[in-house]
Amino acid sequence: MPIPAVAVTGLGLVCPAGVGVDAGWERVCAGAPTAAADPVLAGNPVTISCRVPGFDPAALLTARRARRLDRFVQFALVAAREAVTDAGLDPGAWDGARVGVVLGNTAGGTATVEEQMRVLLAESPGRVSPLLLPMQLANMVAGTVAIELGARGPSLVVATACASGTSAVGVARDLLALDRCDVVVTGGSEAMVTPLMMAGFAQMGALSGRLDDPARASRPFDVDRDGFVAGEGAGVLVLERVADARARGARVRALVAGYGASADAHHVTAPDPQGRGFELAIRGALADAGAEPEAVDHVNAHGTSTPLNDVTEARVLRRVLGDTGALVTSTKGVTGHCLGAAGAVEAVFTVLAVERGLVPPTANLTTLDPEIDLDVAAKPTHRRIDLALSNSFGFGGQNAVLAFRAA
C-alpha cells in the first residue's frame, strides 16, 4: 500500500556553506567552494577540508553546555532549533509523547575519542573524562536533541555511512505513516574531520590530493576529479502529516513523496560497477512516490568527486531517467562531502530547490567527464521543479534516495 506523502514544515542547517538555511543556500547557489587548508590536519597526508565557518558553540549554546557536547551534537542542536522555529512549533506547547527524533550519524564523537585517547596514553586512565561516553556515543545526538525539545516519542540514530542522513528522513516518514508520531525532527549530523579519521580516508585513497589549490579540489563530475574533500555539519527537517500541517496553518515547504533504500551486497567500500544497488534505490523512491522517471525535473546527486562514484551514479541516472532533461547537480562542489550528514544537508538544499524553482550549480565543473552523459548544472538555473530526487550512497553498499514533490 502506498505511503502518503508527508510535509516538510521546517528546515535547519549548519554546514560549510554557512550557519543557517539562508546563509548556506546563498553560498551554494553562488557556487563558492569552501575547501581550505585545515590546521587541525597538519602532519596528515591530506591537509584540506570543508569546515563550518564562524561556528561559535559557546555563543550559540552557552559555554558550559558547549564543553559537555561533542561537535557533532552541537551542530545538530543548532540546526534542530532553527528547523523547529522555522516550522512555527513551540516545544513548550506540543505533546512531547507524539514527537520523535530520528537523526543520521556515522561515527559519533570522534574528536572526543581522539582527545581522551591522548589523555589515556600521556597521563593515566584516572585522568580520562567521565563525559567521554556521553560525548562520544552516536545515539547521544538524538538523545540530546530530544532532551532539548522535550520530545518523548521514538528517539533513534540511523547509521548507514554516508547515506545516514537520507536514511533517517526515510525512517522518520515511516514513523508518521505508522501513526507513531505527529511530528518528527529528522536529518543528520557529522563531525569526523579529525586527524585519525582523515588519515584513514587518506590511506584508502578516497581524498582529493589537490593540496596546492584546495578551493578547486572538490569537483564532482569533472574530468579532473581525484577524490572528495571531507566536510562537516548538520541538516535538520521537521516532518508532519500533510493534513496536520494544513490544519494548523503551517507553511508546507515541500512534500517527502517517496523513499527508496537498498544494499549493493558487493564490497565494503567500492560501489557495484553496474550500479545495481543505486538503481534499486532510485527506482524504489520513484515507485514509492507513484512517479514515472520522466517526471523527475531535478536530481541532487551524491556526486562525491571520486572517479568511481561519479561515473557509476551517472550511468545509473542515465539508465533510469533516460533523456528526460532532468537537471543534475552536486552541491558537494561547495560543501565538500559531509559524510553521515551529507544526505540531510542535501535534502535541505533539494527542498529549497523545489520550493524556489532554482537548481544550484555544480561548483568547479570545468570539463564534464565524457563518460558522464547527464545534463549537469554548471550555473544556477531557474526552472519549475515538481519532482526532485536526492541521492545518497555509503560504504557497505548502503543506498538511500528521497523523492520530494512541490507542495
Automatic annotation (TrEMBL):
<dbReference type="GO" id="GO:0030497">
    <property type="term" value="P:fatty acid elongation"/>
</dbReference>
<dbReference type="InterPro" id="IPR014031">
    <property type="entry name" value="Ketoacyl_synth_C"/>
</dbReference>
<keyword id="KW-0808">Transferase</keyword>
<protein>
    <submittedName>
        <fullName>3-oxoacyl-[acyl-carrier-protein] synthase II</fullName>
        <ecNumber>2.3.1.41</ecNumber>
    </submittedName>
</protein>
<keyword id="KW-0012">Acyltransferase</keyword>
<dbReference type="InterPro" id="IPR000794">
    <property type="entry name" value="Beta-ketoacyl_synthase"/>
</dbReference>
<dbReference type="InterPro" id="IPR016039">
    <property type="entry name" value="Thiolase-like"/>
</dbReference>
<dbReference type="Pfam" id="PF00109">
    <property type="entry name" value="ketoacyl-synt"/>
</dbReference>
<dbReference type="InterPro" id="IPR018201">
    <property type="entry name" value="Ketoacyl_synth_AS"/>
</dbReference>
<dbReference type="Pfam" id="PF02801">
    <property type="entry name" value="Ketoacyl-synt_C"/>
</dbReference>
<dbReference type="InterPro" id="IPR014030">
    <property type="entry name" value="Ketoacyl_synth_N"/>
</dbReference>
<dbReference type="InterPro" id="IPR020841">
    <property type="entry name" value="PKS_Beta-ketoAc_synthase_dom"/>
</dbReference>
<dbReference type="GO" id="GO:0004315">
    <property type="term" value="F:3-oxoacyl-[acyl-carrier-protein] synthase activity"/>
</dbReference>
<feature type="domain" description="Ketosynthase family 3 (KS3)">
    <location>
        <begin position="3"/>
        <end position="406"/>
    </location>
</feature>
<comment type="similarity">
    <text>Belongs to the thiolase-like superfamily. Beta-ketoacyl-ACP synthases family.</text>
</comment>
